[in-house]
Amino acid sequence: MNTAQKILGVLVSLAAMSAIAGEGEKKRPNFDLNNDGSVTTEELAQHRQTMFTKMDLNSDGNLTREELVEFKAQMKAEKEAKKEAKKADREKDHFDREDTNGDGVISQEEFAASAAKMAERVDRNDDGTIDRREMFKAMRDLGGERRKGGDGA
Predict the structure, then answer these.
(1) CA 94 vs CA 97, 99, 120: distances in Å
(2) Would you place residue 60 in the very low, low, confident or very high pLDDT band (cuts 50, 70, 90)?
(3) Which residues are in the EF-hand domain (predicted)?
C-alpha cells in the first residue's frame, strides 16, 4: 500500500466516523460489534466495509470525492430533519398541555391559567412576587429542560 492509499484510507475513515457521529444526537460509532469490550481488527474491517458500502452511493465499488460530499450532506439533512421533527413534537406537546380541555384551541382562560401556574412554580418563596433570583433560576432551569429535550413549560 503506497502513501497516497494510506492517506485516502485515513481520510475515508475520518469522513465515515464524522458522518456516523452526525447520524444522531451524540451517537458514537460502535466498533465492538459483538459487545465483548474490545475491538478486533476483523470488527474494525467489517465496520469500515459497512461504511464504505453506505458511502458508495452509486454502488460501483469506488468512492469519489463527490460521493463523500453527497453522503455527508445526506447525513446532515437527516440530522436536521430529525431535529425539526423533535421540535414539532415539543411544540405540539406544549400546545396540548395549554389546551387543557382538548378542544384544539387555547382560550383566554386556559392561557391565563397557564401563566398563573407558571408564576406559582417560579415564585419559590411563595411571597406573591418573582424576584430577580427566582427569575434567573427559572430561566436556567428552562434552558436545562430544553437541552434535555423538554420544552420547560
Answers:
(1) 5, 9, 18
(2) very high
(3) 43-78, 110-145
Tell me which residue of 140, 90, 98, 95 sits closest to 115, measured CA to CA: 98
Alpha helices in the chain (DSSP H): 3-21, 41-55, 65-98, 108-122, 132-148
Burial label for 147, CB within 10 Å (0-12, 13-18, 19+), is: exposed
Centre a 10 Å sphere on the Cβ of residue 94 and count the other Cβ atoms it contains. Answer: 15
Question: Would you say 32 and 38 are in contact if contact means Cβ atoms under 8 Å apart?
Answer: yes
Q: Are 43 and 33 in contact (CB under 8 A)?
A: yes
- Report d(CA 44, CA 128) in Å as an integer: 61
